[in-house]
Amino acid sequence: MASTSLLLPLGSAFAKSLYTDHQIARGKIRGVSVQCLSSKFGVKASKTYEYEDNSSFVKRRDVIGLVIGVSSFLINSFDANAAGLPPEEKPKICDDACEKELENVPMVTTESGLQYKDIKIGEGPSPPVGFQASANYVAMVPSGQIFDSSLEKGQIYIFRVGAGQVIKGLDEGILSMKARGKRRLYIPGSLAFPKGLTSAPGRPRVAPNSPVVFDVSLEYIPGLEIDEE
Questions:
Q1: CA dist 46 to 10, 31, 33, 116, 216, Å?
Q2: pTM of the complete model beyond 0.70
Q3: Are the beta carbons of 9 and 66 closer than 8 angstroms?
Q4: Which are the contacts of 102, defined by CB distance < 8 A and separation ≥ 6?
């Protein structure tokens, strides 16, 4: 990576202090420049100039301007390096390969208007109304932007099925799932968030009565666990 140089005026306090240890009071010295490479910077020699050790030549605004300039330059350099890194991949229930397979999965539409596609059919019982369900979910707006995710929080979500503890579309969609199954729910606005949802910073806002998409993985049903072989 090519380095970037920032020339420091020799009349500045910073440039002057760099040569104090050499006890240069008057005569010819070499200019000073700062080189930035990644997160480190160093000092190197440059062209020859006449210099006289006289602090009255150093103006306060020059010093302030130099400090602000160097700080801004370094911060912008670090931000640019960070921006060049690939974005962290968010955990998903349905990865890229799953998305392609899902295109060929038939859509099921219920009387309420809820639609879903099974990513994986489970192996155990469905959760009865009133039972708790332990599930992971990734909640998205129709464009695919994530506004909430238990996977990112690293904590399984536990709720009582049919008790109104979650939105209607999720309640209905998980009732017909089987333990260890995975499903994508296409939830219409009437079964989602009637008052909308204000998401965390950097997340898309969910408008009132707007459709949402939930990828759900029903991990287990407490009290109805599958016997391990």
A1: 11, 5, 7, 68, 63
A2: no
A3: yes
A4: 94, 117, 119, 184
